[in-house]
Amino acid sequence: MSQYLKEQILKLKKEKNAIILAHYYQVGEIQDIADFVGDSFELSRKAKENSADIIVFCGVRFMAESAKVLSPNKTVLLPVKEAGCPMADMAEVEQVLNMKKEHPNAKVVTYVNSSVEVKAVSDICCTSSNAIKIVNKIDANEIIFIPDKNLGSYVQEQVPNKKIVLWNGHCCVHDRITADNVLRSKEDNPKLKVLVHPECKSEVRNLADYIGSTSGIINFAKESQDNEFLIVTEEGVLHKLEKENQGKEFTGIRGMTCKNMKKTTLEDVYACLEEMKYEINIDEAVRKKAANALENMLILGSD
Ligand code: 13P
Ligand code: SF4
């Protein structure tokens, strides 16, 4: 059944000149059928630079919205309407505007895990792979960092000469992990190298051998001379790690599952292409302003 479904998806994709983009937290069979799998930054770049008419975005809503912002002439489809990111819902425009009033000299750096409306009132966006670079390069000494307090505090540690005003948002999957969770795994196997996503709390980051985005973690493990790793991010990244690193062993942390990322199935992708649902539409005035923040990220955040 699954093989038949995959063939049907590939056929429809070709007929409609569509491209399937997937995040590393998607289930394995979605990653396997995608044209491109990446971290949030790579996916934004790919959404802008491709010649398809339709983008099927297998991820969560803010990712599909960013694709539409960057590629307004393409049809962008999110296979599961309810696939959201709870952290993106932790910042609202009104609150951001109030914070801006309290800090008139600050620039607003907004993590892409945010609504398109919040991006529209931001100076620049960032992802976990380029947040440090962007805060370093941006022309301001005071930064309002929205919405992830953990990524924001990590950036503050790395860029001590600037003042970061933190927002009180977090990712429920990463924020609940404690130092104890990591130390227990290390007790069982002291040789484990600990690879951590910066959405984790500082007590967890302090135990890391490497801190980075999903792609950063995957690349670090691939290049490393070590063979055993504890992966402290959403379990979806284990799919590529295990597929492409034979002879290396990867241990995840129990319960690190993003329910929203796991909502998309092959059936949803097929229905999405067949019925052209669920299309992302954004008010043009909001889109233009959000595009400014995302384009600024693509310029400042690239190597
Ligand atoms: P990356 O940008 O590292 O892929 O992370 C996205 C995300 O949602 C992390 O929870
Ligand atoms: Fe949002 Fe966390 Fe899921 Fe990433 S892992 S999409 S930040 S809820």
From TrEMBL:
<dbReference type="InterPro" id="IPR003473">
    <property type="entry name" value="NadA"/>
</dbReference>
<keyword id="KW-0004">4Fe-4S</keyword>
<feature type="binding site">
    <location>
        <begin position="111"/>
        <end position="113"/>
    </location>
    <ligand>
        <name>iminosuccinate</name>
    </ligand>
</feature>
<feature type="binding site">
    <location>
        <position position="214"/>
    </location>
    <ligand>
        <name>iminosuccinate</name>
    </ligand>
</feature>
<dbReference type="GO" id="GO:0034628">
    <property type="term" value="P:'de novo' NAD+ biosynthetic process from L-aspartate"/>
</dbReference>
<comment type="pathway">
    <text>Cofactor biosynthesis; NAD(+) biosynthesis; quinolinate from iminoaspartate: step 1/1.</text>
</comment>
<keyword id="KW-0662">Pyridine nucleotide biosynthesis</keyword>
<feature type="binding site">
    <location>
        <position position="258"/>
    </location>
    <ligand>
        <name>[4Fe-4S] cluster</name>
    </ligand>
</feature>
<keyword id="KW-0408">Iron</keyword>
<keyword id="KW-0808">Transferase</keyword>
<keyword id="KW-0479">Metal-binding</keyword>
<comment type="similarity">
    <text>Belongs to the quinolinate synthase family. Type 2 subfamily.</text>
</comment>
<comment type="function">
    <text>Catalyzes the condensation of iminoaspartate with dihydroxyacetone phosphate to form quinolinate.</text>
</comment>
<keyword id="KW-0963">Cytoplasm</keyword>
<dbReference type="GO" id="GO:0046872">
    <property type="term" value="F:metal ion binding"/>
</dbReference>
<feature type="binding site">
    <location>
        <position position="85"/>
    </location>
    <ligand>
        <name>[4Fe-4S] cluster</name>
    </ligand>
</feature>
<feature type="binding site">
    <location>
        <begin position="197"/>
        <end position="199"/>
    </location>
    <ligand>
        <name>iminosuccinate</name>
    </ligand>
</feature>
<keyword id="KW-0411">Iron-sulfur</keyword>
<feature type="binding site">
    <location>
        <position position="40"/>
    </location>
    <ligand>
        <name>iminosuccinate</name>
    </ligand>
</feature>
<dbReference type="Pfam" id="PF02445">
    <property type="entry name" value="NadA"/>
</dbReference>
<dbReference type="InterPro" id="IPR023066">
    <property type="entry name" value="Quinolinate_synth_type2"/>
</dbReference>
<feature type="binding site">
    <location>
        <position position="128"/>
    </location>
    <ligand>
        <name>iminosuccinate</name>
    </ligand>
</feature>
<dbReference type="GO" id="GO:0008987">
    <property type="term" value="F:quinolinate synthetase A activity"/>
</dbReference>
<protein>
    <recommendedName>
        <fullName>Quinolinate synthase</fullName>
        <ecNumber>2.5.1.72</ecNumber>
    </recommendedName>
</protein>
<dbReference type="GO" id="GO:0005829">
    <property type="term" value="C:cytosol"/>
</dbReference>
<feature type="binding site">
    <location>
        <position position="171"/>
    </location>
    <ligand>
        <name>[4Fe-4S] cluster</name>
    </ligand>
</feature>
<dbReference type="InterPro" id="IPR036094">
    <property type="entry name" value="NadA_sf"/>
</dbReference>
<feature type="binding site">
    <location>
        <position position="23"/>
    </location>
    <ligand>
        <name>iminosuccinate</name>
    </ligand>
</feature>
<dbReference type="GO" id="GO:0051539">
    <property type="term" value="F:4 iron, 4 sulfur cluster binding"/>
</dbReference>
